[in-house]
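Task card 7
Instruction: Convert sequence to structure tokens.
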Amino acid sequence: MSTLDIETVQAFLLVAELQGFTRAAEALGTTQAAISMKLQRLESVVGKRLVERSPRAVALTAEGASFLPHARALIEAHDRALSGDKPARQQLSLGISDHAAGPELVPLLERLHAMSSQLALSVTIGFSRQMLDAYDAGALDAVVVRQEGSRRGGEKLTEDEFGWFAAKRLAWRRGETLPLATLAPPCGVRALTIRALDKAGIVWSESFVGGGVTAVSAAALAGLAVAPLARRIAPPGLIDIGPAQGLPRLPSSKVMLHSKVSDPAKLMALRTLAATFRSVVTATNVSFR
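Output:
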């Protein structure tokens, strides 16, 4: 009788969740070739083709989709067997910069939950500086933040391009006071925006100060002001008026993951987080173009 190997089933789940061998390899800290070999062994054991491979995409076959819930149940049972009937759930405390928590946040939480059923998540959204301060003080296990000043270390997840986003109906012309929608200090995006405007000699005023990027985006959508936003998090309905209106180019900004966890379950969760973030960013950039 053939026996399922836990590691090959885990690899299958990651390929299914992250929709690719490369991202699954990143999450497991191994190579794409090793993931492919695990999948081949699993398919040999179950006697079914579980994944369709192509140069551009990876998708589950009908047999793979049918096997998926059984694979999840097996891994959950395996985790329970190792930790006991009433496992003490570990908590992963994660801080995310408001300007970094774009459309990736929902799939991030979905996949972290799917891959870490025995891991409780605590997520805090705030300014990059505040998240880093909490991380340095030991209050957070990991943070996803915009690169701050000369701080080194961390893992780069993506690099965002920024634009001047506004509703089509916003009536503003060069020479007039530019109405801004921003987060309050100490927001780093606000600081770089003001520096760029002052250097260009453009008069500005804060018409709206929001407590979060959602509020700032809403103000821009309502036609109240122009919001400096990363392209990947700008909601539909906003356009970048910068090129047409001669506004200064905003500098790009790196999104970094800082972590100091050593627990295997938490490390796996963070590797999954990094791989998921990159895969969703790639998909968002393709659709944006």
